[in-house]
Amino acid sequence: MSHRQTSCGLVSAQAGFSLIELMVAMVLGLLVVGAAIGIFASNKQTYRATEGLGRVQESSQVAFELMSRDIREAGANPCDVTLAAANIIDGGISATPDGTDWYAAVAQPLYGFEDGGPTHEAGTDVIQVLRTADDIRSVTADTTSGSSDVTYSPGTPTFQSGDVVMICDMKVLGVFKANGDSSGSAASGTVSFGAGTGTNTCGYFPQPNAGVCAGAATAYLFPKFSTISGLQGVRWFVRDADGDATNGASLYRQVDGGTAEEVVQGVTNLQLLYLTDAGYVDADSLTTADAWNAVRAVRVSLSLRDTDVAGTDGTSRQPIARDIENVITLRNRVL
């Protein structure tokens, strides 16, 4: 009798879960796993949204920083911004800001297109400026009569044939195209402003109040310690280079009519307004060179979107988009 009780008790102690208990445990386990997956998915979505917003904000900072650096310097030169440029570039006097040689139109250093201009995305604006390059150097010897060479220091970076160059002191501002690559060493260089088809109409700069290329007798000789630097024509615009609307367009920067460089991806729109005595106006309202030269600031509005819109599972999500605005003041124009 005692043996049977022990045996029965042993069998009872070794009994497992019933089917109902097992099913309840599985349901509870699935609920816990489902909740964990939901939390993970929510955190992943939050992370991706935060990452996308961070990319948009970073892109806007880069775009505004680089655009501001160019626009602020529109019309500036290393000497005196009130000096009228003696532009001896072949065709320079007749150059217009809306022509193919826009970067030689030094009398109008700021210009824009209202939903226009070359190679832009439809519905977006274009702005272009002429500004001093970041290579300001000092002339090391007086220019001499009959010579079209300028020596300067430091010699690098070099000027390339056809580069637009400025030379100035506090009396005269000369603009020319380099007639050939500059020569010399890192310590000292030489560049020519000689005449030639496609370069310069004449090989000398006029004295103050004298006409451009009015005769060699009017030549102005720049003294030692004058300043020489490159003159950059910079154009900003939006373009969808690959034609794929899903990844958006990009902000581009073009220098002196060269190959445009992609600066910031995910820029879908660029709108510009210009501050005048009448307030902010668009480009179509500025119909003369004097009107453009009276602009004191530029309001830049950019529309940006996150370009990473594809999910890891092959699905897509709504991209994060932001409209951001910034006002850029031209340094050489008094408010």
- What does the average pLDDT come to? 86
Q: How would you classify the helix and strand content by structural class?
A: alpha+beta
Low-confidence stretches: 311-315
> What is the number of beta strands?
18
- What proportion of the residues form beta strands (DSSP E)? 25-35%
Which descriptor suits the 3D outline? elongated
**How many separate structural domains?**
1
Q: Give me the Rg, rounded.
A: 33 Å
Number of continuous helical runs: 3
Counting copies of identical and different chains, the oligomeric state is single chain
Q: Secondary-structure element sequence? A: HHEEEEEEEEEEEEEEEEHEE
What does this structure look like?
With 335 residues, the chain is α+β, with helices and mostly antiparallel strands. It has one domain. The protein is 21% helix and 29% strand. It is built from 3 helices and 18 strands. The protein has helices at 2-13, 19-72, 289-293, and strands spanning 85-87, 110-113, 126-132, 137-139, 149-153, 164-168, 173-177, 183-184, 189-192, 205-206, 219-220, 227-239, 250-255, 261-265, 267-276, 279-281, 297-305, 321-329. The strands form 3 sheets. Strands 1, 2, 3, 4, 5, 6, 7, 8, 9, 12, 13 and 14 form a 12-stranded mixed beta sheet that branches. A hairpin with a 4-residue loop joins strand 8 (183-184) and strand 9. It is elongated and about 115 Å long. The N and C termini lie far apart (112 Å).
